[in-house]
């Protein structure tokens, strides 16, 4: 006997739709076949379903009344509580009802609730600046537990909201999470302290960064398109940020640092308001404030100054150029 | 008269609701509502101007590169800098990758599935439509998603990731291309060309771009009316009456697309008027945004974006959307691929619009035509990249002044206006393509482009979400998150 399909409903609120567009870039030659083979059934997705208008409203009503089983409620985009708690900044079209009311009712029926992207997880960019719409995440507001559903919320499975954070989120993180949920292999112990799946959140963006030789010698990029390490001057937070972006690449072979720009910590709560310009590194007495989190600061400073004084000429020159100006030597001796 | 509330719309980007007044089976009046507001123009206040490059792509996940390009141009204009030729070419490649992906996504995932609906069960092509375009199971739907995924690997290399790249700078691109990479990128463009030539057109791209009249188009179609997805679409145009469905206002705006290092554009700028069949020069000083029917403050009346205000006023009487009503010299404008191809004077598009006006058919035709026209341009830009020449010039501090960034997104003309004071953003205003196309009424009560296009649409007995309305709405490929940002 085959198991019944794992029913997924995907709704968008105060975001940009980018996590859905990113999802379609999943590394497979047959996107729908990939999901189907994993037993995942998309009840409805805003970009991928035929049903429109009254057909969708009918489905939502059936889920709320318990007639249709909902295994995973995926919410993309932040939840807009404003103005004055009314939720009127986002009314679900055709219903006259604010989206936050729909989400509360649907979450109460769902076996799992999944926040897709940093908006749904923490509030994200939509909560930036003066946060004009009073945007928040499903279970967090930046790093403060709470959000729309409250810190005590647990879905029918007993799990808190699963935060597949990222701006956008990586398609692999979403597909792997859904497949793990569908096969009942994602439990409490597989989530980090912020509810992120540990299979990607136990990594650092720094891991696998192609600029690591420049990092070793603190040979630093000074302007956009330079090849050097972007931590010292260009605002890169890759040594502190939880994600596997440089080992599980984007769109075939990309990552922010490989694209020539700094990691802005888009998987972390509150990344939208770093308190400094994104592409400048805040420093105190010439030393970056944001150092690797699990290393004594004094050791870091000592090692950095030592390695900087030992930087090979090749690394030093290439760091501030936009292409290799000095290639590694090709010696005639055999490698030892 | 009856009133119908239609929504939520899907297979569009973002949130959309349409209120229709119906009499005798026809839409007599339409009101278009974008029911979500996020407030980017408020979020950007007080930021370091350069940080706009982080925020604005996040307006939209379907055309984030378009937002980045408009922002980078606004900052370049503010700072008085010009990207080097490599930076311009590679930015054009990135923007074109996104624009063509949008056209592909629109055709296969957003527009064609409506022809699988039971309402078309008696059409001779219905079974074929189901086989090719059924959502989640259609053969062509699935192979188009696979082609799209491969296509975006171009942006893995050039942009680090898509969406929300930060490689686009005011001074060019942060991602230089090595000589061997350029060869690989060209191979990827050829792979996409091959998908288009095999599946969409079943013909070489040059045959499509060389069609110089409707006669030539329909002669080619008649040779094998269902061969390739484009010709099947043309068969549907004939039997579903798409050539007269959803007429627009007859005025088409393009800011000019894909600027070249020597000056000028690949697709020129201007306002094409159906009444005279001619192209008028562009004057962006004539743009005003009217917020009379938006849930936004309209103190001091319609404003040019440099002086624009975006502040919620949710209990405003007579308001019905979060979208403002932009007007050019007081007039309603349509923008999109149709406008670009008219401004660029492509003979097929000119001939089709002269005969039918701006309709569901001619809008989709222009988008498909761009798929064929732009791929060879991309091959050309990639060939022109100079290894070891600069891709980016450093940016100044952007302390004081006004910048304007105009670009062409897949859906049409996108403008960013930035005002900087003491190194901070004092004002930032965005007028997106769908802001034009899905505009509400203005102070004079004149409906926006889609509102006009919906008038006269057929509503069949028992239809709660009329299929003709769905075709018309989707022919514009709206991007509601951009509209209201």
Brief digest:
The complex is a heterodimer of chains A (336) and B (485). With 336 residues, chain A is an alpha/beta fold.
What does this structure look like?
The complex is a heterodimer of chains A (336) and B (485). Chain A has 336 residues and is an alpha/beta fold. Chain A folds into two domains: 6-202, Rossmann fold (3-Layer(aba) Sandwich), CATH 3.40.50; 204-323, Cytochrome-c3 hydrogenase, C-terminal domain (Cytochrome-c3 Hydrogenase, Chain A, domain 2), CATH 4.10.480.10. Chain A has helices at residues 18-23, 31-37, 54-64, 99-109, 118-122, 171-182, 198-201, 212-216, 297-309, 313-319; strands at residues 6-12, 40-44, 72-76, 79-80, 91-92, 97-98, 112-116, 135-136, 140-141, 144-145, 162-164, 283-284, 287-288. The longest helix of chain A has 13 residues, at 297-309. The N and C termini of chain A lie far apart (59 Å). In chain A, 54% of the residues are buried. The longest helix of chain B has 27 residues, at 85-111. In chain B, helix 4 packs antiparallel against helix 6, helix 13 packs antiparallel against helix 14 and helix 14 (360-384) runs parallel beside helix 17. Chain B is globular, with a radius of gyration of 22 Å. Chain B has a four-stranded mixed sheet with strand order 10-9-6-13. Chain B has helices at residues 40-43, 52-55, 64-79, 85-111, 126-133, 139-151, 153-159, 179-200, 205-209, 214-223, 229-240, 337-343, 347-356, 360-384, 433-437, 449-454, 467-475, 480-484, and strands at residues 2-6, 17-23, 26-33, 168-169, 172-173, 251-254, 257-259, 265-267, 270-273, 278-280, 287-290, 325-328, 334-335, 401-409, 412-421, 424-431. At the A-B interface, helix 1, helix 2, helix 3 and strand 5 of A face helix 4, helix 6, helix 7 and strand 5 of B.
